[in-house]
Write a structure and sequence with these properties.
It is built from five helices and no strands. It is an all-alpha fold. The radius of gyration is 16 Å and the shape is extended. The relative contact order is 0.17.
Length: about 90
Amino acid sequence: MNLKYCGDWSGAAAEHVQVASGPLWLRLFANTINYTLANLVPPVFPLASAWNRLADALTPGPLAALLQAHLERGRRTGHWKRYKLRKQPAWDLG
């Protein structure tokens, strides 16, 4: 149905999602950090708000601007934010 109505099998054309935008090193860096965090942070993480503040403080401004410009908007991909309670199983190993 996506191919018929959107002209794209994934449906991304209708959602205007930018996939693989930005330099390769930036995508590898962000994915490595996210994958590591997803596997190290427990499902119930009461220190999430402190972690989120620390992650924002430790991320340099130019890097934060690159992440914001090239990674998916509305998602935690480039911000390394964690929730107090994991909402759904993600792509971690457990």
